[in-house]
Amino acid sequence: MSLQQLAHPRHDYSYAFLDEFAKRELRRRILKAIAIPGYQVPYASRELPMARGWGTGGLQVTLAAVGPTDTVKVIDQGADDSVNAANLRRFIARMAGVQTTTDVLAATIIQSRHRIPEERLREGQLLVLQVPVPEPLTHVEPSVTRARQMHADADYALIWLELHEQLVRYRTFTGGADYPVVVHGRYLMAPSPIPRWDTPMLHQAAHLTLLSAGREKRLYAVPPYTDVRPIEFEDVHFQVENQAGRVCAQTGAINRFMNEVPQPDGSSRYILSDTGYAAKLVQRAQGEGVEIGATYYDDQGRFYHTGFLHHDD
Amino acid sequence: MSILDVQGFSKQFFVHHLQRQIPAFNEVDFRLHAGEFLLVRGVNGVGKSTLLRCLYRSYLPTAGRAIYHAHAGLIDLACAADVDIAALRRTEIGHVTQFLRARPRVSAIDVVIEPLLSQGHSRAEAHQIAAEWLDAFGLKADIWDAYPSTFSGGEQQKVNLVRALIVPRRLLLLDEPTASLDASARAALVARLAQIKAQGVAMIGVFHHPEDVRDLVDGELHLTNVQVDYVAN
Amino acid sequence: MMTRPSLDQPRLVRDVPLLQARGLSRRYGAITAIDGVDLSVYRGEVLGIVGESGSGKSTVLRLLNLEEPADAGTYYLDLPGYTDQNLFTMDRYFRRQIQIRHIGIVYQNPYLGLRMRHTSSGNVAERLIMAGERNFGTLRHAAKTALSASEFPLERMDDLPIRLSGGMQQRVQLARALALRPMLLLLDEPTTGLDVSVQALVLDTLARIQRELQIATVIVSHDLGVIRALADRVMVMRHGRVIEHGLTDQILEDPQEAYTQQLVYAKL
Is A244 an 8 Å CB contact of chain C? Predict the structure, then answer.
C-alpha cells in the first residue's frame, strides 16, 4: 500500500486556512474581548501548521479578521525580515490572498511580536500582538484560580507590592518588557513583551489592539480610545527606556527605540528597531518621495499625549 | 448612704480531683455605708481574704447576694456579668493586696500612672499626681524610673499601694496592705486611708496588726468557722 | 456549679460589644471542630481562649478572621455601615474589605502570616496597598511607624522575614496586623515557640499596644501565663465547646470545672 492510498484525497483549504466554525468562534471571542477591555477571553486555540509559541495566537486572530481587501504587515521585534515574520507573512498571504507590505501606513492589519511601530496607527487599523504569557499576575500569584478571583475583585495589591519591593531593593522599577497596565481603569493586563517604550502607545490609541496567546488559549483587546495606564506609584512614576544619546547608525534618527549592535572593539552602535520605518527614512534621504507618518515620540523624546509620561528627576 | 448590702454570702471550694468540698465562709451578712470602714477579723484560714476576693470576684461566691450601689445603679456582685465587674474594677472598686505583679520593662512610675492614664489624665498630670504619692510613701525619686522587679519587698509594696490607691474609688478592699511596710510608710498609708475615708470612700479591711487602723474602724466582722458575727462599734 | 443567671447580660456596661458571635459551629467531615460557641468582646478588652490542642480554639479564630465559612452561627462587628450585617452571609468582596481594614491577625506560625520572600517593610505595606494606598512615600512612612510601634529595629526593616529570629518575625506580623489600626486584633498563640526571655518582651509589647490603642483583642493560647499577662476575660474550651468562662483572675484562681482545675493546677 502506498502513502498516496493511505492519505486523504486532496481538498482545497478554507479561506484563510481556518474552517468557518473556527473563525466564527474566534470572531465571537474577539467581540467579547472588545466589549470587556483587558479581560482575558478563553478560546479554542486550533492546530496550525506551525508550533505553538511561534505566533499561533496572533495568527489565528489575523486569519479570523483578514479579508481579501486587507493589506497585511507582519513584524517580529520591529523587523519585517526575520524568519518568523517572513513565514507568517507568506502563510497569511497564501491562505487569504492578501497584499502584504512593510509600510505601516499602507497596512490594514499589523501582526507583531514584541513591538508597536514608531509611526502612529490610525482609526480602522488593527494591531495584533502575539502573547506568550497572557496572565499578568503569573509572577505574583501562581495559582490560576486565585489569580482569576483577584481579577474578579480588581484586587491587584500584589502587583503594587511587587513595585514596592523593587523600589525598596533596587531603588527603581526593574520591570522591563511586558510592563503591566490597567485597562479602562479595571483589568490588569499584560501588554505582551513590548518594551516599556511602546507601553504608552496603547493609551487612547486610535486603532484597535487584539492580543492573543495560542498556547495559553486566551485573547484580549484594547479597543480604540481606551485608557491604558502602566502601574506606578503616585510619587514614583513609570519610565520608558532611556534612548537619550543613541543615534541610529543607518538613518541618524534619535529618540526612537534602538537595537544595540555590539562592535568588535567593544563599543556599541545603535540602529532603529522598527525596520519598516528605518527603510522609509533611508528612502527619503536618498530623495525618493515617501510618506512618513507622525510618530508617537517627537525628536526631543516627548510623547504625543502631553503629560502622559512623568519625568522624575 | 448604703454602698454594699451583703446577705447570706457563702463560699465553698470544690476540688474535683479530691471530690471534696472545702468550706471558706458561710452566710455572711453586713451592710456598708459610704465613708465606713469595716474590719474583718478572725483566726488564720477562716476566709478573711477569701471574702474580699469573693467581693472582688477573683473568687466566685457560692451563694448569697452582695448588692453594690454603683453610680449607674444596683448590681449584685455575686452574679454580675464579667464585663460589669471589669468596669467596676476600673472605676469604683479597688483591691489592695500585698503582692505586686511586676511586669518586665515597665518602670515604677509607669506602673503607678497607668490607672490615671486609663482615666484620661495627661501624662504630665499623671506624673505630678504620682510623684506626690510616691513621695508620701517614702519611695526615693531616683528609683522611680527603675523596674519594680528589682526592688525590695517593701519598695514593691509601696509601688503596689500607690497604684491601687491613686485613682479615687468608692469601695476599697484592703487585704493586709501593711504587711511588709516600715513604720513610716505604714503611718503614711493610714494617713492616706483616713483622708480618703473622710471623702466618703467605704473600706473593708483585713489587717495583721489591726491596731494600725484602730482609729478608722467603724465596725467589725468576726469570721469563725461555724458562724459569723457582725458587731457594730 | 452554681447557676449564674445574669452572668452574661451586663447591666452597667451599656456599650455595644465590638464583636458578637453566636452559635459558631464548624465541622470538617465527620469531625466537629466547634459546636455552638458564643462570644462577645468589647472595645479595649482582651478575651483569652484557652484549651488543649484540638479543643477548637484556633478554629474560632479562623472563623473570626473570616478565613473560612461557619456551618452555623452569626458574627457581627459593630462597624459603621455594617452593624446589622451577619458577616458570614455577606458577599466575599465585602468580607475581604472588612478583613483588610478592620481585622488584624498574628499567627503562631509566621509562615502563615508573612511573605517570607518579601521585605519586612513590604509585608507591613501590603496591608495599606490592599486598602488602596498608592503613594510610595506614604507606604514607607506607615511601615516605619507600624514597625517601630512593634519595637522592631528599623535598620532591619528591609530584611526578609526568613532571615529574622522568631521574636522579630512576630513583631513584623504584629506591625502588619496593626498597620491599618484595626478594630479587632486576633492573636493565635503569638509567643508559643519563642525563647522565654523573648516571649516576655513580645508579651510586653502586646500589652503596651493593647493599652495604647484600646483595640478589642482575642488571644488564643494554651499558655496560662500569657493569658494572665494579657487577658481581661477567659473562655475555656474543650471538645469544641465553651465549658467555662469568667474574669481571668477568677478562672485562674477559682476554676469551677474539673477540666479547668486540672488545667490550672497542672500549671501551678
Answer: no
pLDDT per residue as tens digits for the range B87-113:
999 889 999 887 766 666 778 898 898
Lookup result for grid cell 445603679? B73
Closest alpha carbon to C102 in C122, C131, C68, C133: C131
Q: Please judge whether C129 and A164 are an interchain contact, meaning their C-beta atoms are less than 8 angstroms apart.
A: yes
A170 reaches C (C-beta below 8 A): no
Cell of C233: 476575660
Three-state DSSP state, A266: coil
What is the interface pTM, i.e. ipTM, of the complex? 0.87
Residues 6+ away with beta carbon under 8 Å from C101: C131, C180, C182
pLDDT tens digits for range B171-208: 999 998 887 788 888 888 899 899 999 999 999 999 88
- CB-based contact C258 B16, cutoff 8 Å: yes
> Mean pLDDT score of chain A, rounded to an integer?
94
CA dihedral A199, A205, A208, A214 (to 10 degrees): 0
Q: Which residues of B touch C6 (CB under 8 A)?
A: 76, 79-81
Confirm if A123 and A117 have CB atoms less than 8 A apart: no
How far apart CA A84 and CA A175 sit, in angstroms, is 26
Q: Inspect the structure and tell me whether chains A and B have 3 or more CB pairs less than 8 Å apart.
A: no
- State whether the Cα torsion B166-B170-B175-B178 is positive or negative: positive
- C195–B contact, CB cutoff 8 A: no
Q: What is the pLDDT of residues B109-168, one digit of tens each?
A: 988 988 888 788 888 999 999 999 898 888 888 888 888 888 888 888 888 888 888 888
Shortest alpha-carbon distance between residue A144 and chain C (Å): 18
A in contact with C (at least 3 C-beta pairs within 8 A)? yes
Report the C-alpha gap between B193 and B174 in whole angstroms: 10
Query: Under the phi-then-psi rule, with left for phi > 0, alpha for psi from -120 to 50, and beta for the rest, what region is A154?
Result: left
The pLDDT tens digits for C113-122 are 999 999 999 9
Set of chain B residues whose Cβ sits within 8 Å of the Cβ of C229: 103
Subunit contact B83:C10, Cβ cutoff 8 A: yes
Q: Residue A226: is its pLDDT beyond 60?
A: yes
Residues of B in contact with C9 (CB under 8 A): 81
Nearest CA in chain B to C40: B83
DSSP alpha helices (H): ranges in chain C?
Answer: 57-64, 92-102, 110-113, 120-130, 136-149, 166-178, 196-213, 224-230, 248-253, 258-267
Distance, CA of B221 to CA of B224 (rounded, Å): 10
Kindly determine whether residue B16 and residue C262, on different chains, have CB atoms separated by under 8 Å: yes
Touching C: A residues 255-294, CB under 8 Å: none
